[in-house]
UniProtKB/TrEMBL annotation:
Residues 287-350 form the SH3 domain. TPR repeats lie at residues 1172-1205. The lineage of its organism: Eukaryota, Metazoa, Chordata, Craniata, Vertebrata. Residues 1-22, 427-468 are annotated as: Disordered. This is SH3 domain-containing protein.
């Protein structure tokens, strides 16, 4: 919600009803990013674009009017292994999180953009996010991500807090996103119509009129062709991909192909796309293996084909794919290997369908990942972050009040000691064994290096023309290339001929010398009939010619290389290289017929020979393979083609081009799950890496997560996912190690046998315990760290890591209030350290022992350990740890109330910290500054405390550490709010705190601080401050609406109404107060509703205008609820307010009723103060009504409830005023001077006790008047007159009038009060 929108929120909702859901509607109307007008414009624009298209996907000639432009993503929380929907209460949590998302749309807009869509709006009540698309490619990518299961995982990372992933280790929960596939398909079809032409699949057998003079075009059901919608009344135009025939039809029966097929077929060159014929094989399976039988005789046309007789059995090498013309076979009779036409064989009993798309002994990784290296890097990185300072830096003990420690059972402690001692002894033994094996290891590495250096490739000298060429050199070269079978040295020739030339030839000035040399070698090989050497030389000459763009010459050499061998090919890598390069030449020269013929042969080779892509340098030649599989609807062949294309693109360093093929491979894996189960985890990891390289971190994380969940996943795969996650963690989550790594590590440790991988077990326990500790779950942190002790081979991780792990375990025990157990672990570690050599690690242990002793209330032992830790710091001049040890001593002294000593230690610690120049100490420094500042504040040294607080804040700002800034700012807010009240400073620091909370995204605290700042501005009581308070209140209201905190919403609505009342904008006051009342009712809490109704009445009761409006809230709404709920205290409070308000409004008779009720309640509660108030108010009401005897009676009852003896001056003053009032009533209204004199005497006595001269003057004057004019006692009259004169002189009053005022009435003062209240 924008600020401007929230400012205007008061203008919305005039027709509010008591339905609480209406408030959610108001919030949506206030906070929605796209207004209804904007959304209508988007829909109208897209609709017009669609109507302008030239046809209908469903075959009708008119444009369809029901193409949607917005897609709804429905979110739901699911739980358990079956992913069942959670209950309504849990779903409401998701609604509130979506409400928060509405307030700040940047995160969701970034995510939706990464998912290749455009954000429209959020309906948090329906848990729905609306998106739209602008291009066909966006729909394709989004639908792919949806099918691969990325949407829910991405949304989990966006919406869920960090604790969610730790809790998910015990309870499986997550977010699932559902979309209407029909809506998405309609949007897809709408974009296709705008494209002008698209690929479609026939849904029935149909005939098309020929667009040329040839015969009509016939397409069968399932055939894929290129369709063009009608234009200017014409029919649909179709292009057959099998042979390029064209036809037209008015209403063809078709459905668009899936988005991937649409993208791929459009990316194919026309040479690849059109032609190749239709599949005519009668093979019953899409992909087969085993043995087949020939149905007719065939004579080979070249060395790459296999000759056979009818009825001969052929062993299928690799896979026989029904949609390809050829497959690679081996004659069972002769053992020869070659290509066999698919339509020349039939099935046998050994012929079966293949469920796998991979070949035997084939590398099933799309790209080779050094998993051992990645695993080692990940473990090292996790250890560096989670255990970076355990063995070097002292821990700062910030515990203020030591809680009661948890007592462990003796048996558990003894078992722990035994395990720790066993691990430490094994570590020591392993250390000695490692030292003895180092020399042997170095010797073995030296021998291995010498062996590698002895292997050098053969080199051939190329002489210049003047020197002529040595026949012996050619003989060696021909001998090198003459092997019929493949040799490892040839691989460089097939895959990278320039490197082959560099590594094998010398003595030439340029490439032309090599061409001449190879030409002579070729001729010599031909004469000597060394056919395999001649073939390889021709291939190399073809490579050289193609590299210089001499394609016709290259084609001649390639064709010679293919046809010159007299025997069948056994070097399949040479055959593959010839095929791929020759096919590229044909494609370049647009020789369609030969390209299709050779591509069919290459397809057979790709389905039979593992890893035969070394000679292929252009993916275009492989597109034919995928096109043929798509047209034949052969999903397994399509999956293998995608695998091969992805592998080739990655080999050529074209990661972005490989992404669509990997995505399609993974999508096909869901449709044909048995085809590529084993490679899924690896494929997901490769895709995750590519996403990360393309700056798509959220998709990369989701992909890595899917990789870890696959059946074939390994521990290395999980750790690869952790590394990918940590690469983007700072950008996405602001931390180095997010809690999302927990499921990966848990999955990794579950995939290895117990005791198999101690390094992984160590880092699993270390990282998870560190995460639980960071999120204040010490008990679970200890539980995970204890798994280290149960690992059989834990000692093999090394002495430093083992010692650091035990120290970390001890610290976790301290945090879990188990200092005794921590001491056992620390004592075992201390005893394992060298006795005659002091180390810094020893100081770390002593400091932690001291903390354990302090938590065990053993101050003497703690002091001794701190002393030992400080001495080690002094020895090593370790000023950082020295400062921490001194600070810990100061904290311990504060605990035992040794304030002076604590001050000394803490001051020394601050001095040492302030002298440090290196980084890494600032957080401890800030904590010490805050603790010292708090101490000074408690001692009354406010200025010193303020200085340390501000120093801490400046240091935190310098290192830009938000949490420390928040901590220091809160201390300063408390200082200026409670200790040294200063509203201006309090506002400044609260606004800074607000900015910090906005940075970390804590909406709950942000709303509360906005409330606080609003009240601070309201206390300033100026118009400008009141308007600022209103703005902050509205901002807090928006946040509370987003969070779904109804109680806070009610308070905020009411606070805004109160401020509008102060600003005298009366037309808005009733609206806000009514909404607050409705919101209170929606909570279903009667007592809270009662509280809000009373507070609403207080808005008018405590003001000087419209006070009568409070009556309906008190009398008509709040009081009946208080009576119904038997809330006696609320009844008493409401009756008191009603009686006072009615008195001031002059409705005394009604006021008596409520005052009497208040009196009865006070008596029943034995509340003497409220009872006295009720009696006094009844007396006042009776006095106002002129019932003087009743007034006198109740005044006397009120006085009888006053405490005796009097404790405060206010009590004596009350006596003065009540007795004087009684005297006035008796004297002026009842006309009884004698009794009046008695009350005046009592009032005078109280005034004399109080020492109030003005009251004594007034009372002495009254008594002098009575005794002079009515009781005729001259002596007493003179006495009181003289006393009155004395007080008058003291008060500088010149004249005293003793004449009685017979017209005076004591009830006149009530008339003035009522008139003022009414006015």
């Amino acid at each position: 919600m924008t600020t401007a929108t929230r400012r205007n929120s008061s203008k919305t909702g005039n027709d509010l009803e008591s339905d609480p859901d209406r408030i959610r509607t108001i919030r949506r109307e206030l906070s929605i990013e796209y207004t209804h007008n904007e959304r209508d414009n988007i829909m109208e624009s897209s609709f017009k674009d669609f109507k302008a298209s030239r046809g209908s996907v469903k075959g009708t000639s008119g444009a369809s009017d029901d193409i949607p432009t917005v897609l709804a993503m429905q979110l739901a929380l699911v739980e358990g292994p079956d992913r069942l929907p959670a209950d309504e209460g849990t779903q409401e949590v998701l609604c509130r999180k979506l409400c928060v998302l509405e307030a700040d749309l940047s995160g969701v807009m970034t995510l939706i953009s990464e998912l290749s869509a455009h954000f429209v709006s959020i309906n948090s009540g329906e848990r729905t996010i609306f998106i739209t698309f602008k291009t066909l490619e966006e729909i394709w990518k989004f639908s792919t991500y949806h099918r691969m299961g990325f949407l829910g995982q991405c949304m989990e990372n966006l919406l869920m807090d960090q604790e969610f992933w730790l809790n998910s280790l015990d309870q499986q929960s997550g977010i699932e996103i559902s979309i209407k596939e029909e809506t998405l398909n309609l949007m897809y079809k709408g974009f296709l119509m705008q494209e002008g032409s698209f690929f479609g699949c026939c849904t029935a057998n149909q005939m098309f009129d020929s667009s040329t003079s040839g015969s009509d075009l016939y397409l069968e059901k399932g055939d894929i062709a290129l369709f063009e919608p009608p234009f200017l009344g014409s029919g649909w135009t179709v292009l057959s991909l099998a042979d390029g025939s064209r036809g037209t039809k008015q209403k063809p029966a078709l459905e668009p192909v899936i988005p991937f097929h649409e993208w791929f077929l459009k990316s194919c060159p026309e040479t690849v796309l059109v032609g190749g014929g239709k599949d005519t094989s009668d093979i019953p399976f899409q992909i087969a293996l085993g043995v087949c039988e020939t149905i007719e005789e065939h004579d080979a046309d070249g060395p790459d084909e296999l000759s056979f007789q009818a009825g001969e059995r052929i062993i299928i090498l690799g896979l026989l794919v029904a949609c390809f013309e050829w497959f690679m076979g081996k004659s069972e009779k002769t053992g020869d290997i070659g290509l066999v036409k698919t339509n020349l064989v039939k099935a046998t009993s050994s012929f079966c369908e293949s469920s796998d798309i991979f070949l035997k002994d084939e590398d099933r990784q799309i790209i080779t990942l050094d998993q051992d290296k990645i695993k080692e890097e990940t473990i090292s990185l996790l250890k560096k972050i989670c255990q970076c300072d355990v063995g070097t830096n002292y821990k700062l003990d910030l515990t203020k009040e030591i809680p009661r420690s948890v007592q462990n059972k003796t048996q558990e402690v003894n078992n722990l000691k035994q395990k720790v001692n066993r691990i430490l002894s094994k570590v020591d033994e392993n250390q000695r064994n490692e030292d003895s094996s180092v020399s042997i290891k170095h010797q073995m590495e030296k021998e291995a290096n010498d062996t590698e250096e002895s292997r050098e490739p053969p080199r051939f000298s190329v002489c210049s023309e003047q020197d002529s060429t040595s026949p012996d050199g050619h003989h060696a070269f021909l001998s090198f290339l003459s092997s019929r079978d493949h040799q490892p040295e040839f691989m460089l020739l097939y895959s990278a001929y320039p490197e082959f030339l560099i590594s094998h030839f010398e003595g030439h000035s340029d490439e032309e010398d090599i061409v001449v040399y190879l030409g002579i070698a070729r001729e010599l090989a031909r004469k000597k009939r060394v056919s395999w050497a001649q073939s390889r030389i021709c291939f190399l000459l073809g490579q050289l010619c193609a590299g210089r763009s001499k394609f016709s010459q290259a084609r001649v050499y390639y064709e010679e290389a293919l046809n010159v061998p007299r025997d069948c090919f056994t070097d399949m890598f040479l055959l593959s290289a010839i095929y791929s390069n020759l096919a590229l030449i044909y494609l370049t020269q647009k020789n369609h017929e030969k390209f299709f013929t050779l591509s069919e042969r290459l397809s057979a080779l790709l389905m039979a020979v593992p890893d035969c892509l070394f000679g292929c340098e252009d993916p275009e030649v492989l597109k034919y393979v995928l096109k043929k599989a798509i047209l034949a609807k052969n999903q397994r062949a399509e999956a293998r083609a995608c695998f091969i294309l992805a592998k080739l693109h990655l080999k050529l360093k074209e990661g972005m081009s490989a992404i669509p093929f990997i995505e399609r491979l993974l999508t096909l894996a869901d449709e044909v799950p048995e085809a590529c189960d084993e490679t899924l985890s690896h494929a997901f990891l490769v895709l995750a890496r590519l996403y990360s390289d393309q700056s798509l971190p959220r998709l990369a994380e989701s992909c890595a997560r899917r990789a870890s969940l696959q059946v074939g996943a390994t521990a290395s795969h999980c750790l690869c996912g952790v590394l990918l996650l940590m690469e983007n963690a700072s950008e996405l989550y602001g931390v180095a190690v997010p809690t999302q790594v927990a499921p990966y590590l848990t999955r990794a440790i579950a995939l290895v046998s117990p005791g198999e991988d101690p390094a992984l077990g160590h880092v699993h326990a270390l990282c998870l315990s560190w995460l639980f500790h960071r999120h204040s779950m010490p008990e679970r942190a200890v539980r995970y760290m204890l798994t280290v002790l149960d690992h059989r081979n834990m000692s093999s991780v090394g002495q430093p890591d083992t010692t650091a792990a035990l120290i970390w375990m001890a610290w976790l025990y301290i945090c879990n209030q188990q200092p005794g157990t921590a001491l056992e672990v620390l004592d075992a570690v201390l005893s394992s350290l060298p006795e005659h050599c002091t180390t810094q690690l020893e100081g770390v242990v002593y400091n932690m022992r001291a903390i354990s002793y302090r938590h065990s209330a053993d101050i003497r032992q703690a002091a001794e350990s701190y002393r030992a830790a400080i001495e080690i710091c002094e020895e090593f001049e370790d000023r950082h740890n020295w400062a921490i040890a001194l600070a810990n001593c100061g904290f311990m002294c504060l605990q035992i109330k040794a304030n002076r000593l604590a001050e000394e230690y803490l001051t020394q610690s601050v001095e040492l910290f302030s002298e440090l120049e290196d980084e890494g100490h600032e957080l401890s420094f800030i904590s010490v500054l805050l603790e010292l500042g708090r101490h000074f504040i408690s001692q009354g040294k406010h200025e010193n405390g303020k200085i340390y607080y501000e120093w801490a804040l400046l240091t935190a700002m310098y290192i830009d550490h938000v949490d420390s800034q928040l901590q220091a700012t809160r201390h300063l807010c408390q200082l200026y709010e409670e200790v040294c009240p200063d509203e201006a400073q309090c506002i400044i620091y609260n606004e800074h705190q607000l900015n910090l909370l906005q940075r970390i995204g804590d909406k709950s605290l942000e709303g509360e601080i906005l409330e606080k700042i609003s009240q601070l501005y309201l206390n300033l009581a100026t118009e400008k401050a009141n308007r600022a308070a209103l703005d902050y209140t509205k901002r807090s209201l928006g946040i509370f609406i987003d969070l779904g905190r109804k109680r806070k919403q009610a308070h905020a609505w009411l606070q805004a109404g109160k401020i509008y009342h102060i600003l005298q904008q009366t037309e808005l006051v009733d609206l806000y107060v009514q909404v607050a009342q409705d919101m209170a009712l929606s909570t279903g809490d009667t007592l809270f509703t009662l509280e809000m109704l009373e507070t609403a009445g207080d808005v008018f009761f405590n003001s000087s205008q419209d006070r009568e409006k409070a009556i309906c809230f008190y009398r008509d709404r709040a009081l009946p609820i208080a009576v119904k709920t038997s809330s006696v205290r609320s009844q008493l409070r409401l009756c008191n307010k009603l009686s006072e308000l009615l008195l001031q409004l002059g409705q005394c008779s009604e006021a008596i009723e409520y005052t009497q009720t208040a009196l009865d309640i006070s008596v029943s509660l034995a509340d003497h103060l409220n009872e006295r108030v009720a009696f006094h108010r009844l007396a006042t009401l009776y006095h106002c009504l002129g019932q003087f005897e009743m007034a006198e009676h109740h005044f006397l009852k009120a006085l009888s409830l006053c405490p005796s003896p009097l404790q405060y001056d206010e009590e004596a003053l009350y006596y003065v005023r009540v007795y004087q009032t009684l005297g006035d009533i008796i004297f002026y209204d009842v006309k009884d001077p004698f009794d009046a004199a008695g009350y005046y005497h009592l009032a005078l006595a109280a005034a004399m006790d109080l020492g109030n001269k003005r009251s004594q003057l007034e009372l002495c004057t009254r008594l002098a008047t009575i005794y002079h004019n009515f009781l005729m006692d001259r002596e007493l009259s003179l006495f009181f007159y003289q006393r009155a004169r004395a007080f008058a002189n003291d008060l500088h009053i010149r004249r005293i009038n003793l004449a009685p005022d017979y017209s005076f009435r004591t009830t006149n003062k009530y008339k003035n009060t009522i008139t003022g209240a009414t006015r």
